[in-house]
Amino acid sequence: MRRSMGRNSNDSRATTARKMGFLLQERTVVALGFSLLLIFGLGFSRHSDVSGVPDRYFWKMKVSWRDCADLVITGDSRALRAVSPGEMERWLPNTRVLNYSFGHVGYTEPYLRAAENVLARKSSRKGVILCISPLSLTKGAADQNEFVYRRELLAKEKYMNPHLARLFHFLRPLASNVEHEEGGKASRGPIRYSQAYRADGWIATDRTPRNEAAAVAGYSTVFGPERDGPVSPDIVDSVVRTVAAWRQKAIEVYGFRAPACPEVLGLENTRGGFDEKAFVDKFTRAGGIWLDLDPGSFRTYDGSHLCPEAAVRLSRELGQRIRAVRAKEKQEVSSSADLGAPDAAQ
């Protein structure tokens, strides 16, 4: 009798354990399902201020470019957000244009060599555009070069592809794209940034609300010795030597001053020690073509970066200027050929 009662008790405990195990599994599945629904619900419902090519793949794509363009745009974040290759291509038929600019980048020899490698070997007309921001000519930008960081990151993310990048972006941690700008007395309110990553290397960027004075304070100190320092004569000379070497290879080189609000341009000249006239003189003597735009006439969203409509306008002007330069050169070559041809009447 006691053995029978012991067996029944054991059977009862086993049955209870099975039921508890099943209940635990069931609740685990329900919790997992609910969590997945919550994750995907948040992913689909939350507002995103980032669009276009997934950002992680965007940088891998850009660093990987080789032998694929006729005209390459170089520079720092000012060029990255200011020059639309698509708009330039409207004015330069049969020319593939790519924006090979990065964020905090210096015009170092490795960066310029990499830009040259983006040019297609079989291109009938190769060209490089230098968007000259004085910050890109400082030793600070050369030492803390985003181009180097992105290139090193490429080795770690060889697996990255557009689909995986989209998944990473979809499952990214919840973070606000809203900042609060600190004014002289108190917070002036929320700021929202929007960015559209384009496959041609341009990031169309805007900020709400726009504030053309936002960058002035930063440019008042960025050229100090504890930060990026002033424009480096050594880096300027290195850029000029590269321009001369490119001209020897029949690579066209164009340059222009990175647009900004007048206050930032003034600080670049005074605090940054940028002598535009002297730079242009060296640049043109090396064979470069300086595109004399009015850098203070373009609308910025923060004082130093162009808003999308201004970027399109700048890109249109660049395309038109380069087209005009090439047409003039073609006309001069044609005129020289006509002058050198023997008179058919003789």
Instruction: Bin the strand percentage.
Output: 5-15%
Helix content: 40-55%
Poorly predicted parts: 29-48, 160-171, 174-187
Q: How can the largest sheet be summarized?
A: 5 strands, parallel
Structure description:
- This protein is an alpha/beta fold and about 350 residues long.
- The protein has a single domain, classed as 3-Layer(aba) Sandwich (Rossmann fold).
- It is about 50% helix and about 15% strand.
- The chain has a five-stranded parallel β-sheet with strand order 3-2-4-8-9.
- Helix 2 crosses helix 7 and helix 2 (about 55-65) runs antiparallel to helix 8 (about 160-170).
- The N and C termini lie far apart (about 135 Å).
List keywords for this structure.
346 residues, Rossmann fold, 4-stranded mixed sheet, 13 helices
Please outline what is shown here.
This protein is an alpha/beta fold. It has helices spanning 2-45, 55-64, 77-80, 85-89, 109-118, 139-143, 146-156, 162-170, 216-221, 233-248, 262-270, 276-285, 308-340, and strands spanning 50-52, 71-74, 97-99, 127-132, 178-182, 187-197, 203-208, 252-257, 289-290.
List the helices and strands and how they pair.
Layout: H1 2-45, E1 50-52, H2 55-64, E2 71-74, H3 77-80, H4 85-89, E3 97-99, H5 109-118, E4 127-132, H6 139-143, H7 146-156, H8 162-170, E5 178-182, E6 187-197, E7 203-208, H9 216-221, H10 233-248, E8 252-257, H11 262-270, H12 276-285, E9 289-290, H13 308-340
Parallel strand pairs: 1-6, 2-3, 2-4, 4-8, 8-9
Antiparallel strand pairs: 5-6, 6-7
